[in-house]
Amino acid sequence: MNINLTLFAQAITFAVLIWFTAKFIWPPLLGAIEKRQKEIADGLAAGERGRSELEQAAKRSAETIDEAKLRASDIISQAEKRATEIVEAAKEAAKTEGDRIIAGAKAEIDQEVNRAKEGLRQQVSALAVAGAEKILRKEIDAKAHADMLNTIANEL
Amino acid sequence: MATEHELTPSGYISHHLSNNAVSVGDGAFWTLHVDTLGMSLILGVIVFGLLWLVSRGVTSGVPGKRQAFVELLFGFIDGQVKSIFHGERHKFIAPLALTVFMWVFMMNAMDFLPIDVMAWIYKHVFGLEYWRSVPTSDINATFALALSVWLLMIFFAINVKGLGGWIHELFCSPFGSNPLVWIPNFLFNVIEYVSKPLSHSLRLFGNMYAGEVIFLLLGMWAATGLVGTFFGAFLGIGWAIFHILIVTLQAFIFMTLTVVYLSMAHESH
Fold first, then answer.
1. pLDDT per residue as tens digits for the range A63-89
2. Partners of residue B132 in chain A, C-beta under 8 Å
3. Contact between chains at B60 and A8 (C-beta distance less than 8 A)
4. pTM of the model
5. What is the pLDDT of residues A10-66, one digit of tens each?
6. Which residue among B40, B108, B207, B263 is the active-site one?
7. Distance, CA of A28 to CA of B232 (rounded, Å)
8. Closest alpha carbon to B218 in B143, B118, B131, B114
9. ipTM value > 0.85
10. How far is it, in rounded angstroms, from Cα B69 to Cα B47?
């Protein structure tokens, strides 16, 4: 119960222990705990950022899908219009072609008729000449009367 | 239990409350209490050695169980210091608080060692007639701590306010700077500076000393026979359980007051 030198020896021990704790025990513990706190805070922030990015991506993809739908319907309506145009054009072309074929056929028929007429005319004139020859065998010279016969044939 | 060489109650108690004193010079002052110094040194080496081992292998990743326990202690001390001291605490004040708390707690906890069993071991295993287990029940140990804190308090007061500021505060607070109240101010401050280390050290010393004396008084029931021995043991269990609270609480109070005093030294009035 009396104050003696123990007091000073104890105080020196105390000082050494304070120095030891402040130098070797407290700083590593503080460093590790603060590092972990920072890592946890960073992780939470990263999670939050990821969630907002995911939300944005979902919004963007919805927008893209809407746009694609719009374009698809545009393309379909254009295609329908084009198909109608093609059908119309084909109808037109077919009609023209038909008309052309009909006209060709008509021309050919006319040509055939004319050719038949010509042939008939030739044959009629030959027949007339032959008939006349038979009737007027002596007096009629085929060559002399050819002009006249041709004129008759043309008149037929 | 009370089978010491002197079977008188006063002899039993005074034997247990005698320090192992070694004289190193002339006069009563030049004496060392080897038991106080030895026990506190051994406890300091064990406690701070273990803390050092854990803090050396500390990881910022997933902590192990030992590290988790040390971090729990760290968080408790850091939280206490943070709520009292507003400033850069990690450099000195918080490590100081950890040192004070753990060291005082362990020195107090030596009170749980059964006093007569330990006395028998000290005597028959180590050959020590006088050896007290609890360093904090020696006024030298608690006064050494309180006086160190007191010196730190004055150091920080001068460090923060400057020597002139500190002297100015001695004469001009708490009543003001009127020359008429310089002397009362100074007297007040002297009383404050004297009472702080005294109350700081005597509170811890008184609690631990009284706790030890009560264990000894309960131990004396053994002198009344077999029934008394069991009755004394029963009361001893009760006091030991209550002592768990006292040991922890006194360590906590000592640490808190240390931080409060140093925090006050940082503040200007």
1. 999 999 999 999 999 999 999 999 999
2. none
3. no
4. 0.76
5. 999 999 999 999 999 999 999 999 999 999 999 999 999 999 999 999 999 999 999
6. B207
7. 47
8. B114
9. yes
10. 13
